[in-house]
Each structure stands twice: as structure tokens, then as C-alpha cells.
Amino acid sequence: MGRLDEKVGIVTGSASGIGRATAIALAREGASVVVADIDEAGAKQVQGEITEVGGHAIAYATDVSSEPDVRDMVTAAIDTYGGLDILHNNAAAIGRARAGDDTDVASLDVDVWERTMAVNLRGVMLGCKHAIPRLLERGGGSIINTSSGSAERGDLTLPAYAVSKSGVNTLTLYVAAQYGKRGIRCNAISPGLILTHPVEAFGGPRYVAMLEEHHLTPRVGRPEDIANAAVFLASDESSFITGQVLRVDGGILSHAPPVADIRRMARDST
User: Fold this and answer.
1) Shortest CA distance to 86 belongs to which of 196, 7, 181?
2) For 184, which of 9, 80, 131, 262 is 20 to 30 Å away at the CA?
């Protein structure tokens, strides 16, 4: 028996990284999964990975910033599997930001700001908008939004990305408040540094090693760490949890800023 047997879930941005790991994890626990991504070829590859081991999945090409696309994505879940129980709003635009377009506020291109908000915030709102009526048809369900630690701190880059994720946190609270009595739980997961291909390509080993020093855990995160949290929030094991932003970040936001430097000083003095 899987923890999600007979449940139906949608995972956006699931052609790679966190979304891929979550789609596979949901299917492994018994859910039928809509693998939704703007990268249709990548979504089909993940679908194949799931079905090859006996899971149930369909791939669906979706631009989450487009309301017709999101509406059709939800309809595809209903038409294929008969209902909807889980929505993981995971798709996000950060690629151009990593390339250097989402830098300091005075240099920020308005088009980058608008596209980031369209995908990261409007996409989450549209997912909720079109999933909620279907979740209510099943007596409730679980909505999981991927946030970011960037929403909780100031930094030297990624202001558009961070602000969009701050909006995701607030939207999570509103959905939880408005639909909790009707059986819908809504939570967000706030990852720390998760080793995905774009992150490794952006900073390289020195970048990863620098951030690893600031985690309280012996390692940085893997996509599976977020997927495990998503499975928990999708399952009945978390039935009394809603309106929360769950940090899955190796403790990077749980300590005073100089901790890594103090640790290094102590190490160097011995």
C-alpha cells in the first residue's frame, strides 16, 4: 500500500529538478501523476521513467503563466484519471535570472520582472484557481507551493525572483484561510540550496562549497529532499497541517550570519 494510493496529482515544472523528483516520488507512493512542464519532451521523458516501473503518469505541455494552458492541464487530469487530489505548484522562472538579468533593482529589466511574476506568482495563482473547484469535488485535497528562502532575506541578486516567492508565501496563507474549512490544505515548501543542473552550472564547485559552509547540515540539498516533504504534505499524515511555509533548507536560515566565519576561525586556530 502506498501513502497516496488512488490519489491524483499534478506537478508543474516536473521535467527536471525538484519537479521531476516530486512527480516520481508521488507516483512511487501510488498517485497517478500529470507531469506538466513547458518542456514537453522533458515531461514525456519523466512520464516514461514513471510508467517503466509500473506507475501511472501522463505528460502535459503547460505554460503556467497562461490561463488556458493551466485550465486545460487541470482538465486533462480529470479526463484521464477522474478527479484531482494534489497540486504541486513548482514551476518557476529563474533561468534568465541565473544568467544575470535579475541583478540589482536599479538595473532590473521590467520585462524580466514581468516574466518572473507571470510564471512564479501568477502561475501559482492560476494553478490554485483552476484546481480548487476540482479538489472540492473530491471533498478537499492538498496544494503544495514551492517557495524559496530568498523570500525571507535580502541579497545582492534575484530581487524579482525573491519578491515573487514572497507573494507565493502570502497566497499560500490566503488559500489555506479561505478553503481550509472545506477540506483543502495549502502549504509551501521553502528549499535551501538544492543541487540541480542549473545551480551547478551557475556557480560551479566554489559556489556550492561556499553555500555549503552556511548550512547546518553536513551536505547541501538534493531534489529528493523536497520531494519527500511534498509527499508528506500530500498525504493524510499531514492532515492537521495547513497555512505553513516549511523550510527544507539544511538550517541555512536558522542561525546568525557569522556562524560559518566563526566556525572557520575556530578551525584555523587549532
Assistant:
1) 7
2) 80
CA 153 vs CA 127, 157, 162, 252: distances in Å? 26, 11, 8, 11
141 in helix, strand or coil? strand
Domain boundaries, the chain: 8-268
Prediction pTM value? 0.94
> Does residue 11 sit in helix, strand or coil?
strand
CA–CA dist 60, 74 (Å, integer): 10
CA atoms of 28 and 144, how far apart (whole Å): 18
Say how far apart CA 14 and CA 67 lie, in whole Å. 18
CATH 3.30.565.10 describes domain 8-268? no
Dihedral, 168, 170, 173, 175 alpha carbons, nearest 10: -60
Tens of pLDDT, residues 194-252: 988 777 766 678 888 888 899 999 999 999 999 999 999 999 999 999 999 999 999 99
Residue 55 CB partners (closer than 8 Å, separation 6+): 24, 27, 28, 33
Beta bridge partners of 130: none
User: Which member of 81, 161, 174, 207 is catalytic?
Assistant: 161
Q: What is the pLDDT of residues 126-154, one digit of tens each?
A: 999 999 999 999 999 999 999 999 999 99
Grid coordinates in use for 179?
478553503
Contact 81, 138 (CB under 8 A): no
Which residues neighbour 43 within 8 Å (Cβ) at sequence distance 6 or greater? Answer: 14, 15, 35, 36, 37, 59, 60, 61
- Which residues does 48 contact at the CB level (< 8 Å), separation at least 6? none
